[in-house]
Amino acid sequence: MIARKKPEDLRSHRWLGTADMRSFGHRSRLRQIGYDAEDWTGKPVIGIINTWSEINPCHAHLRSRADNVKRGVLQAGGFPIELPAMSLSETFVKPSTMMYRNMLAMETEELLRSHPLDGAVLMGGCDKTTPGLIMGAISMGLPAIYIPAGPMLRGNWKGNFLGSGSDVWKYWTEKRAGNISEDEWSEIENGIARSFGTCMVMGTAATMMAITEALGMALPGASSIPAADSNHPRMCGVAGRRIVEMVWEDLTPDKILTPAAFDNAIKVHMAMGGSTNAIIHVVAMARRAGIPVDMEKFDQLSRQIPVLANVRPSGKYLMEDFFYAGGLRAMMQNLREKLDLDCMTVTGKTIGENIEGAHVHLPDVIHSLNDPIYAEGATAVLKGNLAPNGCVIKPAAADPRFLKHRGKAIAFEDYNHMMQEIERDDLDVTPDHILVLKNAGPKGGPGMPEWGMLPIPKRLLGQGVRDMIRISDGRMSGTSYGACILHVAPESFVGGPLNFVQTGDEIEIDVDKRSIHLHVSDAELARRKAAWKQPTPKYQRGYGAMFSEHIGQADQGCDFDFLQGKAPMPEPEIH
Ligand code: FES
Q: For the whole model, what pTM was predicted?
């Protein structure tokens, strides 16, 4: 029997339930808005943290979805209050939404802390919004339930399904090679994004929504529902009803987010063929929860878990198909023997109970452990003298011939240098060369932009080359693909070995052995380093300066140093 809270135990009671002058002020100002005592008396106040904005197409529906949540909260006897938070539209926010993930995490935490709230509904989905919301909610510690925005419908061009990002890169490359006309390119622009909702390939958004469900922080099946499907508003209503109960049960994130829950989430990530970005976010979320998850953990679990979801960019289908195939619950059923089924979730039930009865309806979309689409997991972590603290590659999305390769580097000092060189008709490059991009890391970008899928040099495009090894300290979009080695740590901007690679140096990759080696002697590397001067940060004031000073490296989750950990935070004083 779960001990239930009493109305006077509610956190909001401090603001609304006492007889002092301040609570008079709080109540009178609620009356000013039009609320009455019946709205709040003895009721959990539920903060709906909504990342809707007019310039975020992935969240265009969240304004009306908040009404579905409110209906559920009211039905269950709660008092819903919607609070807008930074939207982080992946498409529009520059230089990179990664600059602002921690800002959203801070905003979420402080919105929850500073207001009279008892529980939280977190509404997001576009890439960094999910980890930002969850990191903030973990640090605050109120009962919280996450509502994934859900993927948009499949794109369509001449009867072919189009995937966000993945098909943009693909057809842009064909356009650069002269195989796509301006008119066709314009048709693709009209057909690739047909509804609200997140990218509908297994990009960072779909990966993080699934990971959050696998962690136990969303309703079962919620992450797979297409944004435009009527199941989506109904799911929002259920979440609204459920959060009120979670408050009475005091079901806080620390009761859900255990080491086993993170293992489950990483296994689901691997089986989904998920985005490399998820590594950074999961490490950051786990560290907020006081759970030591590192890149080694990803590599270790990657070797145990095959890819089951046949979804682009590693596979063939799109998230809409994944939903019709049974969604995440069905995939977790197929993964059942690898998961810890006893982990608690927002439903008050275990993961095992939540996936009971789920079935795969389309076995070519969701494969089984006996018949995976790729034998090992989505992400391999490489280490060596070029990346002492690690870097990542997505083997399933790369040309297999590059998984063991030695080649000469072509080094670019930064993005602009790379873009100038890559279009040169006389660039001295072969398909066996290795492209190296520096200064794309957390401090160097800054904000670790998604530049890691470097364009194939123009000179090779005409020869039909579509993949080659590319190494950087940046990230790549979860919708991207190719033999891209990312997140090199430490990054070049802080003097990591990547900074000292020169054109003509040889680099050797062996994904089976998880190694990456720069064939330059230690003495020569030391000589190059001695001649190097630490560059000054790009931003001298404002958020950018704070970001540059406090951001951590990729292998540590890129959280701010002062946001990590579980040091107790006092409740605000009400005077
Ligand atoms: Fe929002 Fe891809 S742009 S999820």
A: 0.95
